[in-house]
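Backbones bend. To wit:
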Amino acid sequence: MSIGTWRDFERLREIGRVVRLVLDGVASAVGPGVSTRDLDAIGGRLLALEGAESAPPAVYGFPGQLCISVNEEAIHGIPGKRVLRDGDLVKLDLVASKDGYYADAAVTVEVGRGTELGKRLRRSAEASFAAGLSAAKPGNRAYDIGREIDKRVRADGFHVLRDLCGHGVGRTIHEEPSIPNFKDPNCRARLTEGMVITIEPILSAGTREVVKERDGWTLRTGDRSWAAHFEHTVVVMAGGPVLVTAA
C-alpha cells in the first residue's frame, strides 16, 4: 500500500507498535528448555491483549501465531514440541493486523550463551538491513535495496537466500512490489513516497538455496547451514524511511 492519509499512517504505526511489543515479549522468553509452542502461546496472549490478530493463520491457515524457525530453518517454522537448547539460533517472525492494517517484522535471537557463528549471522542480518534501508528512497528501484543488502552480506562471508525476499505490506500480508535481497534485474519497481514495504535480509552461512520441509511450511537451507533473518515494516519517505515496527 501507499500512505494516503494521516489516518493511514497512524493506524499503520499502531499495528507496528503491537508487532514490536509482541516480538519483544516473545524474544524475552527465549531460553534453554523453552519449547517453540510455549513461545507461540506467549505471542498469542500478547496479541489478544492488544486487540490484534496474527495474519498468517487468518490469511493462509498457518498453524501458529508466529513463524518460529531454529538453526537451519530460515522462515515459516511451525511452533511445536521442539525444546530450545543453549546455543540454538531462533528466528521469530510476526505479521499481525488490527483495524484493517498489517505490519511485519522479524528478529534473530541466540539461545543462552549462543555460538560465535550465531552471533555473526545475527549481526550480519541486522547490518545488512541497515545497508538496504539506506537505499529505501523515493525514485530508487526495489533492486537497489537488494544490491546493498547483498554487498554487506557477502562482505561478512555469508550468502543471501535468493528465493526469499521482502514485499509490499499494509492492507494484507503480501503486496507488490517484491523487495529482493540481491540486485535482481527482474525487480525494477520504482519506490515512491509513502510506499509501505518490508526489508528483510534472510541469509545463511552456506548455500543460497532453500528447500521446503515435509510439513509443507518450513523453509530451510539446502545444505542445512544456519540461517538468520531480520525485518521491519518501512514507509518510504523523502525525508528518510520510517520504521513503524521499531521501538
